[in-house]
Structures are given as structure tokens and as C-alpha cells.
Amino acid sequence: MTISYSADNDASGVLGRLAALLPERFRSGGAVVPVVRLSGTIGAVTPLRPGLTLAGVAKLLDRAFATKGAKAVALAINSPGGSPVQSRLIYLRIRALAAEKKLPVYAFVEDVAASGGYMIACAADEIYCDPSSIVGSIGVVGGTFGFTELIKKIGVERRLYTAGEHKAQLDPFLPEDPEDVARIKALQREIHALFISLVKDSRGTKLKGEESKLFSGEYWAGATSVALGLSDAIGDLRSVLRAKFGDKVRTPVIAPPSGLLANFRKSAGGAAALGDMAGLPEALISALEERAIWSKYGF
Predict the structure, then answer these.
(1) Cβ neighbours of residue 138 under 8 Å, at least 6 residues apart?
(2) Each residue's pLDDT tens digit, 212-254
(3) How far apart are CA 75 and CA 94, in angstroms?
(4) At the fourth CATH level, which superfamily is domain 25-138+199-295?
(5) CA angle in degrees (0–180, nearest 5) for 190-114-84
(6) pLDDT in tens, 132-144
(7) pTM of model > 0.85
(8) Cα–Cα distance between 225 and 119 in angstroms, integer?
(9) Could you state, in order of their start, the residue ranges of all structural domains in the chain?
């Protein structure tokens, strides 16, 4: 029996095995589509869990669009909304980077892309969702509590001093003033109009159905959102990107720094927050508000 030996074949096999051990972003072959995960409420901040803000995601977006050899950028979105300002700032940054780098953007809705979460999804050239995803809620909401009867009952006297006629409007410890309500509703209508304009500019002729329905604040499951033109198709990130860029497409996730230093910073921040007992009531209210936003969509 003759045993042949090929140094070239052996070297190729070794290199192949070594390549398999490298992080995905360092491997060669196949298209590259970096993935940025955008999860959580937008702009809502609790001491232990900050929400999505431009300041928090800007570097991740910059890294994604600067990825060497990238053919596109994918957004994995799971957000019930939140701050309209932060939502729009994130939207604008994505569109600016897409134009600068000349890269298409694909959004993939997980559980929810509603309200501000949907606004961010509109930054993509195409929006994909699961049949059970919740999509839409193109509207504006705001709320507070009224404690006037409670403080009367427990014998508390409210003392409030202001400079400015409307500085204390919608104070939860004062009776509701119809003029204050009218002012806040006018403000909401203005913000709603900006949201509607953004969706129309982004989705264009893809939108179907009456505007009174699309922009009512209603939300829908994935298949209905496709029928209404709010989403482009049913599909998951892996399947869609493989269909577009081939089976060897690589999808490195662009994530915040990790490791001992990052964990230390998180722990230090958490300890400081826990030690700040003066801010505990505000933190509790923030946490309840965040929970209420998610629960609106069944989560």
C-alpha cells in the first residue's frame, strides 16, 4: 500500500480548522451584514436599566456601517416605543449613515415594533416581521395620575409656588384644568403629525388603507401589517439575509463592550443607584411606566 502525503492539503485543512475558531467578523468568504440589536423602551430610564437613546446606540451604529466589506446593515428591533425625540434621532442617524455609506438597511421585528419602535423600523429600506409580531401604534400618548382626593382624605395640604402662569399645568396634586388638557392635546397633535409625515416619507406608496386607520394608534399582527404596507414581508433575519446574499452570509452582531471593565462599570452604577434612596420613588414610577408600555402589547 502506498500512502501519499500532500503538504498543501494538510496546510489547507489546518487553516480551515483555525478559521472556524476565529470570531465570525474575522473570517473570510461570504457577504457580511452586521446586525445591530435595538431592544427596550426608548428614552425611558431607570437607575438600573437605561432605555434606548441616540447616545447609547450611536457608536454601535457607527461601527456597523463602518464594517469592512459590509453589503448591508440589519436592525433587530424589539421595542414598544417611548420618547418620540430619541426615536426620531435614532431614525435620522440610521438614514444619515445609510446615505453616507451607500448601504441598504433591513429591519427585522421580533416581538414588537410599535410607536417609537416602529419609527426606528421605518429607517430601514425593508421591514420584515414574524406572523406574531406586533407592528404599528402610530400615535402619541401621555398620562399622569390624579391624587387630589387622596391628599384630602389623608389631610395633606398642597403648597406650590411658581413663576409662570402655566408652569404647574397637569400637576397630579391639583384638580385637572380643562385648559391644561387642551394644551397638551394640541402638543400631541403636533407630534403626531410629525410621526405621520415620517412614516409617509419612509413607506411611500407601500402604505395601503385609510389614513384614519393607519394613523389611529392601532397596532396589528405581522401578516396584517404586511397587508397594510407597514411591513414588507414575513421573514426572519437568517432566512431573509441568506436569500439575499447567499448561504455563506455572515451576520456579526455589533454589541456594546463586554468584559471585566464593562461589568465593573455596570456594577458600580447599579450600586450607586441602589444607594441613592432619595431617588427610589422616581425609580419605582419609571419602572412601572416601562412595565405599562410593554404590557399594552401583551408582554
Answers:
(1) 115, 118, 195, 196, 199, 214, 215, 216, 217
(2) 999 999 999 999 999 999 999 999 999 999 999 999 999 999 9
(3) 10
(4) 2-enoyl-CoA Hydratase; Chain A, domain 1 (3.90.226.10)
(5) 35
(6) 999 999 987 766 6
(7) no
(8) 14
(9) 25-138+199-295
